[in-house]
Amino acid sequence: LESSKHRWELHGKITHHKKVSFGDSPTNLRKGMTVLKKLQSLGIEVLVEAEDLENYGRDWTRFHKVATCGIAFPKSTDEVSAILKACGAQGLPVVPSGGRTGLAAGAVATQGELVVNLSRMNRILDWDPLSLTLHVEAGIVHEAVQEFLRPQGLHWPVDLASKGSCQIGGNLATNAGGLRVIRYGHARRWVQSLKVVLADGRLMELHGPVEKNNAGTSLRDLFIGSEGTLGIIVEARLRAASLPKNRLTLLTSVPSLPAALEILKELRKKQLPILAFEFFRENCLQRVLEKTQLRPPFRNSSAAAVLMDLELADVSEIPESLSTADTIVAETEEQARNLWAYRENITESLAQLGFVYKHDLALPLRKMPAFVEKVESEFSQRFPGAELYLFGHLGDGNLHLNVVWPKKDPDGKLLSLCEKQNEWIFSEVVALQGSISAEHGLGLLKRKYLSFAKSPTELEMLRKLRKVFDPQGLLNPGKGIE
Ligand code: FAD
Ligand code: MLT
Ligand code: ZN
């Protein structure tokens, strides 16, 4: 359906002046009009200009056509609650939205839903230096949390390249991983308590401002990683940790993935404190060099590289096997940042190439070489004309396998091909007891492959659970487990 773009006028009229597609969602659009009027009468900020719908109606992915009736920007928990009540009264579905850096199409509206974006709820509410907890609203940008903690020698130990845009609410809704999981684990570990608004508008505080709370089953962890399907996270108490006392950043070239794993094995054998252990293939590095002003790190070309942060005070503690001509050790903070730039620019550099389909796989480390060998041996036959880009958080067993064509996909053929080949990739992953998503989640993009993610019994339980929290099915419909 091609419906007209509507614009909310202050005097309470919706005007139509430009064509916008609402997909198959005329009903949601109609409900949306009623809800938008209600929200305006309550003084809640709403955007309905075409560019805003397009911009706030999606995350980092570009696979789906956006269709949203409007974007609401609550400024308080009460406003979130009022929005969900208004949507519930009309049966209008909602897409919770944070910094929109998600890579699984979890914050994409495709059915005329109302997008509820948390950006205006970005305050630090309290800092408790005794318990080392920071109480924040969910829309605070990740980096703002780090900027508050850093001068005190502390950090929230989740670190990811999207830190300048992603929000704490989004980090928790995806249980974000990132560059320091090998040392600190996922976001889940660094949360003391949550406040969530349920689909019916009621507020729940989960766990409270105490370190220990064993008074019955905890619901807190259910919301972490639930991709906006169980409720909207409005506040969190985050646990802070001391910044590492020392950090040595090293970049070393390796001839192969097994060689990279040998380095990891040696570090583990020597019980050296690893803060990060990242891997990327040479073609990833080449694309970064083309996009940025960075100079090639190695004198000779190398098949791949390992980037490590070790919590060591002195270079003399670096294992001898790493003291080769092909290892660069950062001597200053700036040099360390430059080494990290090779890794942190990969996603954006690949995004410029044409069509990118991302896999975010978890595999038992010892089975990873066999998996990669298998994928490589069949890749060109299964993905004609595509190039394979491999990188990831190798120390965590998390492989970002990117299938890239140097052209766009106007008719959706490349996407269809990737989706067809997912069956093959995911079967291989499951056969090795891996997971089809190590950190990005299922969203709209991977939800078709639920049978590769969970057992039938687990799926049944999760579906029932979703119904308990959201009987009308209004929170992020079509995403995750349904
Ligand atoms: P959004 O994209 O806005 O939303 C993500 C999901 O959370 C959606 O399902 C949405 O509905 C839900 N949601 C958002 N806010 C709320 C809320 N307040 N309450 C309930 N549900 C909510 N991810 C990693 O795990 N590790 C990485 O290393 C990593 N690196 C990245 C690097 C780049 C360059 C980019 C672009 C992305 C990267 N990501 C990574 C993915 C992404 O940044 C994370 O998934 C991040 O946690 C998403 O946060 P966000 O605020 O952008 O969420
Ligand atoms: C990363 O590790 O850089 C992210 O997960 C983003 C990506 O997979 O491209
Ligand atoms: Zn990642």
Low-confidence stretches: 1-22
Mean pLDDT: 94
Most strands sheet: 7 strands, antiparallel
DSSP strand tally: 20
Radius of gyration, in angstroms, nearest whole number: 23 Å
End-to-end Cα distance, whole Å, is 25 Å
Large-scale geometry: globular
What does this structure look like?
This protein has helices at residues 26-41, 50-56, 77-90, 142-149, 168-173, 181-184, 220-223, 257-269, 282-291, 333-344, 346-351, 368-382, 413-431, 450-453, 456-469; strands spanning 2-8, 14-21, 45-47, 68-73, 94-97, 113-117, 124-128, 133-137, 154-155, 191-197, 203-206, 232-239, 241-242, 248-254, 274-281, 304-310, 327-329, 355-362, 387-393, 398-405. The longest helix has 19 residues, at 413-431. With 482 residues, it is α+β, with helices and mostly antiparallel strands. The strands form five sheets. A seven-stranded antiparallel β-sheet has the order 17-14-16-15-19-20-18, with helices on both faces. It has a five-stranded antiparallel β-sheet with strand order 7-8-12-10-11. The model is unreliable at 1-22 (pLDDT under 50). Helices cover 32% and strands 24% of the residues. The chain is built from 15 helices and 20 strands. The chain binds flavin-adenine dinucleotide (FAD), D-malate and zinc ion.
